[in-house]
Design a protein that fits this description.
The chain is mainly alpha-helical. 53% of the residues lie in helices and 7% in strands. The mean pLDDT is 94.
Length: 86
Amino acid sequence: MDFQMNPDFPRQMQEQLNKLKAVLDGISTEYSGQDVEVIKNALSARWAAVGNGANVTDPDLTNVATRVSLGKRVWMEDNGKIMSDD
């Protein structure tokens, strides 16, 4: 079997990352201060809507929802790591 690298992979990966960043930005802004369960449901649905098998699970799901509920900004770094204000 021959393996051939997809020459468009870096662009596709960056596009996926940009979509996930937008999800976190939107959730962080729109749901700030709301109940953790409400945020978890919205985050899970929006993350999955990005497509390509995107899925956020615990502990990240609960951690992000808790931070947003506390009014903290949450974002994704260029390397895919999820960050939050202290």
